[in-house]
């Protein structure tokens, strides 16, 4: 789902920070308000394992860079906002190409993620409608 993709993107963003040790302040911009709320206030919900993985990655990062500040905020999606357009292009490229896993990729993301109930329902709905 889009929600799950946004959370995975947030996990990937955090996992890339250790390669930039001079970074002290991070603005993580997402164009999905549900994902932003869930990352701020994780609770029992679908894709909770991804939210827990995000917070595990954040804890590892904060232990490595103790004075790091992180702000998660909304950015407009699909409205000619250059940073978001670039991320969308990179995500599309990654989805369409069979690239070997990056060596710093979190272990959770080294194998296919389980298919969510929401994604299964959406696929069934699309097949039924077609």
UniProtKB/TrEMBL annotation:
SUPFAM superfamilies: Ribonuclease H-like. Gene3D superfamilies: Ribonuclease H-like superfamily/Ribonuclease H. Residues 1-96 form the RNase H type-1 domain. It comes from the Eukaryota. GO terms for molecular function: nucleic acid binding; RNA-DNA hybrid ribonuclease activity. This is RNase H type-1 domain-containing protein.
């Amino acid at each position: 789902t889009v929600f799950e993709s946004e959370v995975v993107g947030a996990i990937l963003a955090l996992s890339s920070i250790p390669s930039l040790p001079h970074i002290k302040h991070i603005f993580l911009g997402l164009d999905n308000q549900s994902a932003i709320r869930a990352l701020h206030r994780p609770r029992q919900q679908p894709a909770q394992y991804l939210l827990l993985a995000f917070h595990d990655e954040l804890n590892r990062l904060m232990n490595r860079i103790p004075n790091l500040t992180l702000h998660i905020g909304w950015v407009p999606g699909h409205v000619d906002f250059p940073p978001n357009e670039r991320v969308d292009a990179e995500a599309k490229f990654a989805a369409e190409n069979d690239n070997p896993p990056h060596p710093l990729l979190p272990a959770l993301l080294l194998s296919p993620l389980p298919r969510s109930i929401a994604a299964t329902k959406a696929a069934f709905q699309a097949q039924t409608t077609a």
